[in-house]
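Appendix B. Chain record.
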Amino acid sequence: MAKPTATVSPASKGRVVKAVPKADGGATVAGPAPKKPFNPAQFFREVRAEARKITWTSRNETWITSVMVMIMVVMTAVFFFVVDLALSFGINQILKLSTLGS
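Structure tokens predicted for this chain:
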């Protein structure tokens, strides 16, 4: 018994299509659902409806978040400055030891 095969049309290239078995053992490819025509007016109505659902932060919330970000930036800068100093000091000590031995 032969395996059912599916043919893919160029129009369905790149889409997932499902093989539908026939009664005689073969298979046909069920094409994608027909596309609805683009309606610009409906599109903009939907965009406006979605935009109304947006909840914006208050001025106070934005201010607090900005201050927290600045604090974290300063703390990170200080941390990397200290790490850089420690690594620099350690490397200088190793280099001094290597020059004393020669």
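Further analysis of this model is presented in Appendix C.
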